[in-house]
Amino acid sequence: MRAYNIKHAGAWRLGISLLFALASRIIYAADEKLESCQLHPKIEEQIIKDVSVWGSKGITEDLVLTVSKYCENAERITQHYCNCHPQRILIENGTVYLNNLIPNHRLGPHEHIGLLVELYEASQVYKLPDVEFTYWLDDHPPAETVLGPDGRTSWPYEPIGGLPPMVAWSKSEDNGVLMVPYSGAFRCASDSFDALEDQLHVLQSIPWESRKSMAFGRWNGFCTYYYGGLVRSADGLAVPCPRLYLNNISEAHPDLLEAYDLGRAKHVPLAHQNAYKYIVSTDGWSISSKFDKYLLLGSMVLKAASIRTGYYYNALEPYIHFVPFMEKHKDDIVEAIQWARANDEEAQKIARRGVEFAKEHLARPARLCYLFRLLTHLSKQYRYPVSCQRRKLCVPLVEELKYMSRFEKTAGTCNYKELLEKYATDELSAAPDDSAFEELYSQHEDPLHWPRDDVFVEELTRGRQQQ
Ligand SMILES: *[C@@H]1O[C@H](CO)[C@@H](O)[C@H](O)[C@H]1NC(C)=O
Ligand SMILES: *[C@@H]1O[C@H](CO)[C@@H](O)[C@H](O)[C@H]1NC(C)=O
Known about the structure:
Number of domains: 2
Strand order of the largest sheet: 8-6-3-1-2-15
Oligomer: single chain
Number of helices: 17
Bound molecules: 2-acetamido-2-deoxy-beta-D-glucopyranose
Shape: globular
Distance between the termini: 15 Å
């Protein structure tokens, strides 16, 4: 243990002592964890396609270590938000660890925390394989990875080519990341997917016939970069920013749609939008985190054309689960609504199939299965032993979640208690003197916190050669 950097030795000890505490439980619990599950074949297909980016060379350790090189000195660490974008995660013997800590001042958003919470639950339900990857906390565009049509890849921090394994909640065809659920919106927010699913009977209490035969949409009025020419309709023209242009269409067709940005019309809670037969979905900075929820409302979802996809989009079928627009031309939503009105039974079927799809493939058990299958496919790519012994810092995820449940900026972000209680982690409870909290707090607070695993592995190798 001497070899570990003093700065991180404390956290490493935290890891070790917890491991001892865990050991008996892991052995006991391992038998109970699931080792298989069934995904929608199209979703599984997407995973296999995305994982194939490493080809027969697989994932070598040097690719993973490039994430550490991303910030190689104190100046870069402070200027380049080193700990703000990459959340490095390692799973060994079924336990999830973090290899770096996001600074306190950037903690809070459920985009980050939701996945950690969901991953922890997945590790309690499934026997997860040994893997390591980075969750890139920036959606513009995912992790700056490029995947060329010829299969060539690049990432700004790896000049020789090749991608470290990274996950993000959305991507385009030309990004080399693996997709994960936008778990924060699925499970953390008060109007999360899971919360809406819990009140499905209430959402369904408005019969189809009583819903207004109009399209409804509400959002913040901003445009993402890809509506500047990257999304094109069949007529060859650039699709305008849906969130602004729909204001215009709504004004021109007040009898058909009320799709306005919040600068133009009042907020309407999601759970009340089912008063309309048709719900309009548009991208924000990236895919809409509301699209999944719209599918639950029992209304037919109209979805604007986009170049971005989410982890399950491959399984969605147009005119089966939703109706696309801005595909033929920028105003085709008008025709889509007229079609829906004239084909009411068909529109209702699309709405119903949307709900069925969401219940079957997007609900929490399906998302946990997804993470398990994704990591299982990913685990076959590693060409070196994935281990905490080769990483400078390994904080058990459960400790970070306990920290978040107490830290004021994150305490309200997600329901940690439900999870920590459900999986009975009380035998791991923080030391009564709060030392675990204090220790994590100071590392989250340290402006130069950035475990350099590239340097660390070099030192390990040198140490071994000297022996
Ligand atoms: C995982 O299990 C192996 C074999 O039992 C052990 O050597 C290793 O230390 C374990 N790793 C962790 C992080 O507990
Ligand atoms: C939408 O309407 C606004 C205000 O009337 C106008 O300035 C803008 O050009 C319109 N947008 C398009 C794409 O037609």
